[in-house]
Amino acid sequence: GELNNSFGAHLLNSGNSTSPIPIYGFNAQKNDDHINPNGVITGWSITENSWNFSEPTSNFNTSSGLFTIPSSGYYKLCAMLIVFSNGNGNNFRSNIIINGDTTAPYAGSFVDLINQDYGTINISTIIKLNKDDTIGISGSNNGTIKGGTSNTNTSTFSCFLLASDTQTNTRQMGLSSIVPLHQLGHDQFAEGK
Fold first, then answer.
1. Which helix (DSSP H) or strand (DSSP E) does residue 53 occupy?
2. What's the predicted TM-score (pTM) here?
3. What is the Cα 56 distance to its own chain's centre?
4. How confident is the model over 162-189, as pLDDT tens digits?
5. DSSP 8-state code for residue 101
6. Which residues of 39-76 are buried (b: 16+ CB within 10 A; e: fewer)?
7. Is the previous residue joined to 37 through a cis bond, with omega within 30 degrees of 0?
8. What is the dihedral angle through the alpha carbons of 71, 60, 41, 163, rounded to the nearest 10 degrees?
């Protein structure tokens, strides 16, 4: 049968609305090795394909490694960093930075480079961000972040809007601001709206 919905291309912000909820975020891969970052990890690449994207394109600066938040809401941030030891016998620490603040206790992790030559850092969190905030991933001064052109052998960094906290969307839906947008789209699709 024929369904009267437009779920496939975008999510709707109410059952009878034709206004799409925007898809905001990015998925990037490290384009080359970054030795001793000692701050924001820079030099990312976004090649539009099945695993890399940026929406809106201009909001992720691949050179600086910073993403400017286009709309206030709850975002899922993930980083998978392959880190090699520089031979100095120290651990390597990495964490999310927001608006340049490296002292706030945002999600982070470390890899033991004292007892091994390389390791992986995985960071995953959901955080409320405001329009025009900037986010990035920082690294300490004692390791090399692996980069390259292979999607299986390089570090990755991603961010995706899960739920908007704007009154426009939540009032129309009559729901809490933290309901994931993908769930709303699923419910509408399942109901044929």
1. strand 53-55
2. 0.71
3. 13
4. 888 764 444 434 444 444 444 444 444 4
5. B
6. ebbbbbebeeeeebbbeeeebbebeebbbebbbbbbbb
7. no
8. 30
